[in-house]
Amino acid sequence: MIMLTYIAGIESWTDKQKFNKIYEEYGGLMFYVAKRILGTDEDAEDAVQTAFLKIAKNIKKISDPVCPETRGFVVIIVERTAIDMFRKRKRYTMSELKEATAGIAIDYDGDDRLAECITKLPPRYREVILLKYHYGYTLKEIGKMMDLSLAAVTKLDQRAKNKLRKLCEEEGLL
Amino acid sequence: MNFDEMLKRSAENANEAMLNSLPSKKECEHKFSTKVERKILQTKPHTAQHIVYRTLKQVACVILAVLVSGTIWLSVDDTARAEFSGWVNEISETQFSYRYEGEEKDMEWDDYRPTWIPRDFVETEVVDMGTGSVTVYYVNETGTQQSWFSYTLPTDQGGAHLFNNYGMTYKTTKVNGVTADLIIANSERESNSIVWTDPDTNIIFEITAFLDEEDLVRMAESVKAVEK
After folding, report:
1. What are φ and ψ of residue A31, in 5° steps?
2. Cβ-defined contact of A28 to B28 (cutoff 8 Å)
3. What is the spatial distance between Cα B122 and Cα B137, in angstroms, rounded to a whole number?
4. A82: distance to nearest CA of chain B, Å?
5. In angstroms, rounded to a whole number, what is the distance separating the alpha carbons of residues A130 and A110?
6. What are the distances in angstroms from CA A155 to CA A14, A135, A162, B87?
7. Exposure of A16 by Cβ count < 10 A (0-12 exposed, 13-18 middle, 19+ buried)?
8. Dist. CA B171–CA B51, nearest whole Å
9. Which residues in chain B touch residue A99, judged by CB atoms under 8 angstroms apart?
10. Using CB atoms within 10 A as the burial measure, which of A84, B54, B195, B212 is most buried?
11. pLDDT (tens digit, 9 = 90+) per residue, A71-91?
């Protein structure tokens, strides 16, 4: 028992260092993303705090706390958290809803037209596509991050791909 | 190259575009309030789940597991656990969750709807997940508040009902004599929920809406089987 606790202590210490580094490096960016969606400092800080609880759950999957992969991952997590918080609000106008649920504004000027279509997807669809196809998370893992059952996240993945195919067809890609 | 392979390649480019659209660290520095910073930095990474922790967690889950519809406490006995089936409410640091534990039932079931909804509720969408979980969405007349009613069959595939445990108060009430859980948001800007099970079918029901406790119970008590 003592040995196991000791080993666990080392693990926790390493994870804690990683966690603190993520806060130091990306806390401001996460606040920026959350505030664009929620509008007030107070709500944005709440969203960042909730997002960090989700990051804590997935800390083992983060190998390097300061790298583009981690930056993208924390942005996706805080965007989802902030949009979910916004939707639970009691009062908002339709224009506020549209603006908030549009998520991060992405400018794409490359020549990969499928990538451009991905950036045009609604945030929830874009997030599941990026987490699965770029970050390599399983649907089960994504479900846990998004507080969705496996069945729900499987459906979400299917819908995201259907929407993407439709966008591609409209753009003449498929 | 098939669609999934194309997606993998293009997802990388889309991710890069997303990152390039965001400001640099210098451009978005923010000093968090002391209270929030302390809370964030006190968060304990969860994945250092060594054997002792996992075992304790499993034992704690079993001890704390409560049937949603009643007050049956499970013992830490393998036989009892094997024989147990029902909806288990787990309360963690971040969420309340309801998961089905036990043998799946092959059952025929009815479709359900609340027969009373607030005057300004308009049904907008019915989503049948095809896995034994159906959700009916409503918006108010001005389209500014979304609410839903859902039910899930007692199957593992049906998945879990999850609620944030942040800024919520948890208490119990009765729906047609059956114990139900109320999850009340501490902020008026967030919706409230009620969760209960039908003791005969073991189907779990949830209503999440911008309603007070009284109206949530009224809507819950009005739920009836309807023709499919």
Report:
1. -65, -40
2. yes
3. 8
4. 13
5. 17
6. 36, 19, 10, 23
7. middle
8. 33
9. none
10. B195
11. 999 999 999 999 888 876 655
